[in-house]
């Protein structure tokens, strides 16, 4: 407001009053009022932002969702339609992971892909974790396992399983628990699986070329000497394909035993260590319960699971 010089006549006092001082006073009041409005707005905005940041999510505390990847093969452990895990009866291992997540105030979402793709997803942050992953130094470069005394803790595994050698029913290949006999030592293994190491350890020549269903069919059609893989998965594949029955046989004893874990990416573990540790602990606790064993039997016609 600019200052203007003018006079008014005070008829009662018979004198002229200098008005500039009145305008100066009014200007001071108006400026103070504007400053107060600005200050009040600033304070209100700060309170609003603080309230928004500290306010809990609508409907209660936020639940973290774990995105876990696995293969699309359907079995009593994880029942799928090839693209999704079934909703109502997802399989005993899927239920185990769902229950473990709930115990840690989280939820689980499953995604399916070939095993090599599953590992890629974890390594590159496209999935939080993968199951069931046995421990290898290569995977430990980007993944984290539940450890105890410097080694993976079997008590927190989601499964224990055997790797076996399957051959054509007319094959001359043999296995006595120590030595593989026969001239053709070429076998196929699922791409990205530990089966390649298991096969090499007993003198076989592994080729990583595909998924379980394709590998078993290659053996049945005599395109390769045998297939090394998780015994229960290959048995399930043979059982689910009547045309394979009688054409493929399992050589005993198993080539080796492994434990499978939920492997989390290093980045996710660093961000959610408390949740991951809770999840692993819950898996171990739940697997040891009678309720879990009964739940497994409800999927396997009374037989124990892996």
Which structural category do the helix and sheet elements fall into? Answer: alpha/beta
> What are the low-pLDDT stretches, counting only 5+ consecutive residues below 50?
1-60
Largest sheet: 9 strands, mixed
**Global shape:** globular
Number of domains: 2
Radius of gyration: 35 Å
Q: Regarding CATH, which class of the largest domain?
A: Alpha Beta
In CATH, the topology of the largest domain is named D-Maltodextrin-Binding Protein, domain 2
β-strand number: 15
Order of SSEs: EEHEHEHEHEEEEEEEHEHEHEHHH
Mean pLDDT: 83
CATH architecture label name of the largest domain: 3-Layer(aba) Sandwich
What's the name of the CATH homologous superfamily of the largest domain? Periplasmic binding protein-like II
Beta strand %: 25-35%
Helicity level: 25-40%
Question: Total number of helical segments?
Answer: 10
- What is the distance, rounded to the nearest whole angstrom, between the alpha carbons of the first and last residues? 86 Å
Q: What is this structure's SSE topology?
A:
Blueprint: E1 7-10, E2 15-18, H1 20-54, E3 64-70, H2 92-103, E4 106-112, H3 115-123, E5 129-133, H4 137-140, E6 143-144, E7 147-148, E8 151-152, E9 159-168, E10 174-175, E11 180-181, E12 186-190, H5 195-201, E13 205-210, H6 212-220, E14 226-230, H7 231-239, E15 248-265, H8 266-271, H9 273-287, H10 290-299
Parallel strand pairs: 3-4, 3-5, 12-13, 12-14
Antiparallel strand pairs: 1-2, 5-15, 6-15, 7-8, 9-14, 9-15, 10-11
